[in-house]
Amino acid sequence: MTGVDTGLPADAGPALPEPRGDLSAGVVAALAGEPGGLPPPGEAVRAEPYGDDLQLALYVLYELHYRGFSGVPDRAEWDPDLLRLRREAEDRFFTALRAELPDGPGVEETLGALLVEPADRGNSVSHYLQRHGELWQLQEYAALRSLYHLKEADPHLWVIPRLNGRAKAAMAAVEFDEFGAGRAEEVHARLFADLMADLGLRTSYGYYLDSACAEVLATVNLMSLFGLHRRLRGALVGHFATVEATSSPGSRRLAQAMRRTGAGPAAERFYDEHVEADAVHEQVVRREVVGGLLADEPHLAPDVVFGVRATGLLEERLGRRLLTAWRAGATSLRAPLAVAPGS
Ligand SMILES: [Fe+2]
Ligand SMILES: [Fe+2]
User: Fold this and answer.
1) Does 103 or 179 have the greater pLDDT score?
2) What is the 188 CA–ligand 1 centroid distance (Å)?
3) CA-to-CA distance for 284 and 174, rounded, in angstroms?
4) How far is the CA of 253 from the centre of ligand 1 (A)?
């Protein structure tokens, strides 16, 4: 196991990533203070909504609301030109999702379906890793997921001021667990950094951004989109319900994969912890957070369903990308993995 640098530096943020097209090049150049300026209005509207360029530009713009980037002034977070571009890019992303997901079934039916094991396990990443996963695939999986797990539960916290009563109290209770219930060493983001160290990965925040495909970026951007917009509070709750409902069985399989490959105790611990905790969280989120929100604001039911379905859609695409690469014996990453020496 390598030394843990907790993944949570208070001072310098991660380095700005390599651009993947005109849009992301403009954003990165603007944040680096280089001449050239941002793309003109309307450019994001023409970009491929799920493509690398738009997803990376959006990811970088959203990251200004989390930890930012090394060398980028904090005040860039509220720069009106950057916000204008962010809005265009997220509108493009959101409109594409909406077009793919017209009205779905009711909330109960949608949430109930999450608890049913998929008939076709051939497209499930956790089933694949449980049975066939090799250490290098677990390393890739952790590197990709680190873009979320090193800020685990952060985007969901934004919804709390937009909730009332039962929903607010229950959401805060679940988030309290995610943030370690008062103990820094138990913060789930920290447990994930420990897992990464067991796998010989770099644990600093945002380190694997250049390695991450658009499908991963889209899953993280979805949470930021839902979290940052009050009008999407129903969708954010739907997203959270999906995460909590699917986490426990998926975590059991991933814990088995970690044990089978001898990944290490912290690698097992992260997923073991989620088997127990999320079985409880799923109940609380479904009954109190979703139930409480819809008791207060029943008109948000279609948004909750949209949040669940959008999450499922993007996870399915990510799964397909990973499994296609791995079954061919190929890397799922954009850049080779920098595994720490001695691991
Ligand atoms: Fe967690
Ligand atoms: Fe949880």
Assistant:
1) 179
2) 5
3) 8
4) 16
Which alpha helices (H) appear in 125-260, and where do they start and end? 125-132, 135-149, 154-157, 165-178, 188-198, 214-228, 233-260
Determine the distance separating the centroid of ligand 1 and the alpha carbon of 308, expressed in angstroms.
18
Question: What is the value of pTM for the model shown?
Answer: 0.94
Exposed, middle or buried: residue 227 (CB in 10 Å: 0-12, 13-18, 19+)? buried
Distance of CA 250 from the midpoint of ligand 2 (Å): 12
CA-to-CA distance for 197 and 257, rounded, in angstroms? 16
Q: Which residues surround ligand 1, an ion (CB under 5 A)?
A: 178, 188
DSSP string, 272-319: HHHHHHHHHHHHHIIIIIIHHHHHH-GGGHHHHHHHHHHHHHHHHHHH
- What is the number of the ligand closest to the CA of 154? 1
- The residue behind tokens 């265009």 is 88
Non-local (6+) Cβ contacts of 28 within 8 A are: 16, 17, 19, 60
CA of 266 to the centre of ligand 1 (A): 14
| Range of lowest pLDDT (25-39, 112-126, 130-144, 185-199) | 112-126
Q: How far is CA 87 from the centre of its chain?
A: 19
Rounded to whole angstroms, how far apart are CA atoms 206 and 16?
Answer: 9
Contact 203, 197 (CB under 8 A): yes
The first and second tokens of residue 103, run together, are 């009205």
Residue among 64, 1, 13 nearest 204 (CA): 13
92 and 57 in contact (C-beta within 8 Å)? no
* Tens digits of residue pLDDT in 274-307: 998 988 999 999 999 999 999 999 999 999 999 9
CA 279 to ligand 2 center in whole angstroms: 8
